[in-house]
Design goal:
The protein is an all-alpha fold. The protein has a domain of 91 residues: Leucine-rich Repeat Variant. It is 64% helix and 0% strand. Helix 6 runs antiparallel to helix 7 and helix 10 runs antiparallel to helix 11. The protein starts with 11 loop residues before the first helix and ends with a helix.
């Protein structure tokens, strides 16, 4: 008789039933459900003004993130929603909704309307505002990597070099690789190799730029004690060579 045919073998359904019968497991599940319900209620209350405008603009959604889902599933972009999101973002205080809006603005067609506002937001968040502020700044920085272009090159390089922003700059540094024609970029990235908060991002950006002048510096990272740096240096050197 195979293991799957053994009469004493518990099925997945039986195991789940047994777990649910456990008072501790049931209590944890109920607590989880309450937390989810509370978070959904808080999101709905915070998002009501934004969603009202979006619905008026023709978007039948119940969360901002559904705009991204709509694009992923249908290919339909949401250009007319971008100015609404940019205008509403400064008035939102609920962090999950702030993150949702920023992620929804992290698309190429938001570049014209959103880039300046997100640069300003990145700078205005308190440098040491606790983990949620740091995480949100990183999310904004990730958006700036998507939106990076030459017209905001100076702003991006200033942010990338400001150590007060710590690791939140990582994606901004990576975004400098999109400024291929700016002669300032490679020297900035070479200097950032010595900044431990963004070293890995600088290595990756130099590889994407195929910066031959960075070859010697990158070779040094092949012996670095940090495995991530060694891995990214190998990849960058392959791209350069």
């Amino acid at each position: 008789m195979s293991n799957s045919q053994r009469p004493d073998r518990m099925t997945a359904e039986e195991l789940m039933a047994q777990l649910r019968a456990n008072p501790d497991v049931r209590a944890r599940e109920e607590a989880n459900e309450r937390q989810i319900a509370q978070a959904q209620a808080e999101y709905a209350a915070a998002a009501e003004p934004v969603l009202t405008e979006l619905v008026s603009a023709g978007y039948r959604i119940s969360t901002v993130g559904e705009l991204r889902t709509m694009f992923e599933q249908t290919g339909r972009t949401y250009e007319s929603a971008v100015p609404i999101l940019v205008r509403c973002l400064p008035h939102v205080t609920y962090r999950p909704l702030q993150d949702d809006i920023v992620r929804t603005l992290s698309v190429p067609w938001a570049r014209r309307d959103a880039t300046g506002a997100l640069i300003e937001r990145f700078r205005e968040l308190p440098p040491h505002g606790g983990p949620t502020a740091s995480d949100h700044r990183w999310t904004v920085g990730n958006a700036l990597e998507v939106l990076a272009h030459q017209t905001v090159a100076t702003d991006l390089m200033e942010i990338a070099q400001d150590r007060h922003y710590g690791e939140a700059r990582q994606m901004v540094v990576l975004g400098l690789a999109k400024l291929k024609k700016d002669p300032r970029v490679i020297p900035v990235l070479l200097n950032l190799l010595d900044d431990p908060d963004v070293t890995g991002s600088a290595i990756m950006a130099l590889g994407r730029l195929r910066a031959t002048e960075a070859r010697d510096r990158l070779q040094q990272f092949l012996e670095h004690p940090e495995p991530h740096y060694r891995k990214e240096a190998r990849k960058a050197l392959r791209m350069i060579n």
